[in-house]
What we know:
Layout: H1 3-12, H2 16-28, E1 40-43, E2 50-57, H3 59-62, H4 73-85, E3 88-95, H5 101-108, E4 119-123, H6 126-130, H7 135-153, E5 158-160, H8 174-195, E6 201-203, H9 210-217, H10 235-251, H11 253-260
Parallel strand pairs: 2-3, 2-4, 4-5, 5-6
Antiparallel strand pairs: 1-3
Helix pairs in contact: 1-8, 4-10, 5-7, 7-8
Amino acid sequence: xxxxxxxxxxxxxxxxxxxxxxxxxxxxxxxxxxxxxxxxxxxxxxxxxxxxxxxxxxxxxxxxxxxxxxxxxxxxxxxxxxxxxxxxxxxxxxxxxxxxxxxxxxxxxxxxxxxxxxxxxxxxxxxxxxxxxxxxxxxxxxxxxxxxxxxxxxxxxxxxxxxxxxxxxxxxxxxxxxxxxxxxxxxxxxxxxxxxxxxxxxxxxxxxxxxxxxxxxxxxxxxxxxxxxxxxxxxxxxxxxxxxxxxxxxxxxxxxxxxxxxxx
Length: 264
C-alpha cells in the first residue's frame, strides 16, 4: 500500500471523530440538488465534419447545480471545441451523482448504447475522496475503467478532467478540507502516473483553485459564486471549468492533432 497514504491516515486519525460530527451537520443542511436535464446535444459549426464526444462520470459530469447540460460542463466544452476546431460536436452524457470510479465502470459503461465516439471525457475522483478510497484501490478501479472504455471504443482518446477542488469547497470545515484535500491530491498523483501507461489517455493535472480561475478567465472575485450549494459547481464554475479543459485539449499536441484530423 502507498506509504504516503499510510502516514497521512495515521496523522488524520485524531481528526476523524471531529470530521464525523462535522460531516453529519453539513449533510443535515445540505440541499438535494437534481442532476442536469438533457443528456445529449449538438454544438454546430459551419463545417460538415462531426466530432462525437462521450462525457462520463460523477456529479461534475452529471451537472448537479445547473438546470441543463447545455449550460453546464459538457455543453460548454462542446461549444468551445466546435468553435476552435470548426467542427460539429455531438455530445452525450452518462453520469450519476455519488458514483465512484468503480461504480462508473460497473454501472455506467455497460449502459452506453452508442457504438462510436471520437473523444471520451471522464470526471471522477470527488466521491472516491469523500469515501476515503485508498490510492492503491483507486488506481485499480481507474485501471479497470480505462480498460472497459478501450475495449468498447478501441483507440479513441480518453481525457480525465481535473480532480474536484476539495480544499476550495465553502461548505466544508478547515479540518475536512485539510484531510480530504490531501487525499484528493494523492489520488490525482496516482491518476497522473496511471494514464502515462496507456496510449491515447490523458489527465489534465492542473489543480483547480478559484484564484487561478480568476486570474486566467477574468471572473468575479467572490468564491461563493463558483458553488451552487457549497459543494457542487455553479453555472459559472461549470463553464469556466469546461473552458479550461477545452484549453488543455486545444494545446495538447497529440490531442489537438487527433481531433483536427477527424472527418478529413
